[in-house]
Amino acid sequence: MIGPEIDELMRLLARLPGLGPRSARRIALHLLTHRDELMHPLADALVSTAEAIVPCRQCGNLDTTDPCGICQDPGRDPTSLCVVEQVGDLWALERTRVFRGRYHVLGGTLSALDGIGPEDLRLAELIERASAPEISEVIIALDATVDGQTTAHYLADSLSGAGVTVSRLAHGVPVGGELDYLDDGTITAALNARRPI
């Protein structure tokens, strides 16, 4: 019914996060019916971005420069290092405009089931960076999953000799959250992390 090029477009779109075959079909149709104002500029942007993006040697972020814009920013706090799992987590923290230190992207978490060990992550680079004299705090900002917590504990142990304060993001009731809708683990974490007001 449709040509192989359109079929390939839909197949590739369906591989994007959050999209399935139906969404991919709708997007493909929208792109095809808006070729000049959307599809061609999008294709050009994809090609130029793919050619320009490089991983930052220092933190692991993706940018058009190496070191990245965050690592080059003289206004960032050089004493604080925030450890995240993936670049998307770094971007999420940056959206808040709250953290003004530097980052370190691990590239994943430890996972015995998936066969991911310390040598598969950027852990050696983290320990080297955390041992620098200007670093005073390492903030572990990993997901509250089993693998994330396992990795956080491993990092805390690994950084114990670096002479830095190791902290982690708070866990508990989200802003706007209702207790009745939260799972037991979240409520337990919130109770354990309570503080005076």
Using the alpha-carbon principal axes, give the shape: globular
- In the residues, how many domains can be counted? 2
Strand order of the largest sheet: 4-3-5-6
Annotation, overall tally of beta strands:
6
- Beta-strand content bin: 5-15%
Low-pLDDT segments, ≥5 res: none
Folded structure, characterized:
The model has no long low-confidence stretch (mean pLDDT 93). This protein is α/β, with parallel strands linked by helices. The longest helix is centred in the N-terminal third of the chain and has 18 residues. It is 44% helix and 11% strand. The chain is globular, with a radius of gyration of 21 Å. The strands form 2 sheets. It has a 4-stranded parallel sheet. Strands 1-2 form a two-stranded antiparallel ribbon. A hairpin with a 6-residue loop joins strand 1 and strand 2. It starts with a helix and ends in a 5-residue tail after the last helix. The protein contains 8 helices and 6 strands, in the order αααββαβαβαβαβα. The chain has 2 domains: 49 residues, RecR Domain 1 (Helicase, Ruva Protein, domain 3, Orthogonal Bundle); 107 residues, Dna Topoisomerase Vi A Subunit, Chain: A, domain 2 (3-Layer(aba) Sandwich), CATH 3.40.1360.10. Helix 1 packs across helix 2.
